[in-house]
Amino acid sequence: MIRWRAWPRFLDGALEGTVLSFAAWTLFYLIALKTQWSLLPAAWPWVVLTAGLVVVGGLRAVRTDQPRVWSSEARRPVGGLVLLAVVLVATLALLLLRDHDLVWPLAVAAGAALVLQLVPWLGAREPDPVDDAPAEPDVPMGAHLVALAVSLGLGVLTLFLVRPDADDVYYVNRATWVATHGTPTLRDTMFSSGEWESTYGGGLPTPSIEALQGALAHAIGVQAATFSYLVMAPAAAVLIGWTSWRLVRGWAARRALPAFLVAIVFLLASADTIVGNYSLGRIWQGKALAYAVLVPLVWWWLSRLARRMRTVDVILLAAAGVAFVGLSTTSALLAPVVAAAAVLAALVLRSRSLAIGAVAFAAAPVVNGLVQALAPITVGTTDDTTVMAAPVAFNIAMGATFALAALAVLALVLLPRTAPGPAGVLLGCGALATMVCFLPGVFQLAHAATGAGPVAWRLAIALPLWIAVGLLVTLPVPEPGGAALVVAVTLVPVLGGTWLWQPEDAQLTPRPAWKVSPEALENVRALEALDPPRGTWLLPPKEMEILAISRGDTHVVAPRDFYLMSLPKTEHDWHARVHLLSLVDGGELPSAGTVRESLATLDVTVACVPEDLWRARTRLRRAVGEPLVTVGDMRCAGVTPRS
Known about the structure:
Elements: H1 7-35, H2 43-63, H3 81-94, H4 104-118, H5 141-160, E1 161-162, H6 168-181, H7 209-220, H8 224-251, H9 256-268, H10 274-277, H11 286-307, H12 311-327, H13 331-349, H14 352-374, H15 390-398, H16 402-413, H17 415-418, H18 421-436, H19 442-450, H20 465-471, H21 481-496, E2 507-508, H22 518-529, E3 536-538, H23 541-550, E4 555-556, H24 571-584, H25 592-601, E5 604-610, H26 614-624, E6 629-631, E7 634-637
Parallel strand pairs: 3-4, 3-5
Antiparallel strand pairs: 1-2, 5-7, 6-7
């Protein structure tokens, strides 16, 4: 009989079943992409499959003895603690060099500190725990309940948190296309209905997550954006919380709840770093879901293999590799970093099982990378000048303020101390791989190999940084130093960070909302209520972004100016879009004649400009030769006002 108190383990297994289910969807999507099958009939069967795998995974986790993990006390003393302390102080001092666009000395110092802690493991072997030891130290039921409540709270917060992201013009637009047309496409869906070559330089559209969002949205009868923002986003936010809890109670069971709460506080206070941006900030996007949920699970499964061989973990890692391909084309960048760190740890620990797990995880992303490399388009853009400088990448990954960056660097460098036993070696190797990324030429090398361009910096985000920060509270200090440590680590992000809802473009809304500008959304809804003619619409920039993600039967002049650079149309057509975009975004005003000619070239049926741009209003009125109609905060031509 299954005891009700086993529900946390059931949720752990259910999470594993979800990964297997999404991997299956990704394989089906790749076949459908080639054969042009409609994805819509597969939505409900996939839901049934997911429910089955969730239940089976949960029951298996409850009924199967969990693998023993190394307890919080199973740490190997590190030789040369005085030398380590000196290196850590030097590392923090070198953080100041970031202000001078120099991070490689910091990376070298941090790498030296990590090597100093990893060297004693060479040739050594941690003694096996006794046979009757518990699978892992018991975590009080109250702690499980608090973690579940926090996870659910993250889901609720995501419903009301609005941080608009311009990348949705591509991602949510793809979901809208599938919801409307059913079949995935290799071609452009932002400017056209699949008539043109793709304008997105992000590689072949192997990610399947947007297609899943579109198919499920169609199945339940809502817009794809509504499903992405108000169904998937809160569900994924809950997964962030529970995944974090799974990791900290596996690696820090004795202080699991403090470590978990500190990790969540750091995540919520990281609006200016990738930790916040690739979590609740835009969790509906595949790359964020991969960073905040999938990759942390990969590190957990690898740490279990570092202990002993388990076939189920190898299967889960292979499925995670497939799922990674289904979440982001940059799986080809990030997965090899994780796998390389695991292989290095396998060499240090002489662990064959860990090496097998690393290969299993990297297999699908590496194949995806080869496909992307041979495709006519690449992982990113092809302009060498777009490769992000290491200091900029460091600030994005670790934090722009000294306090937040210092805490992040300390958390990574001390992972061999804060994570138990072989797990510490594994995570320490991951931290070492992260620091290597900031050495001169590494991002350029990644670009040369993959064409990653402006996304090459993602090499440096292979580790779940918020978990590493949470693990700092497990440092072996005598009481009452433990409580003081928790307070100190918590105060750093609270006082030195930025909450996710504090940036200028973010806000908390009074009711669940799309993750777009509420004012711009009201304008689009007001325009749609007038039922203007379909075709191509010219709107202010934010409104064009919203229309691109919400409709599959109407296109806009420029859904995002970034994509105009690669628009495969005639030069005359391209200039028409540039002129009209300049009209509505407050740029240099084209003449009335140029506006008239551009509207005709693009066959624009509706043209609107912001009400507060009076010169643009005058220019548009002269171009169309008719009075403009007030619609929300816009003045429009081509619409009929309600009587």
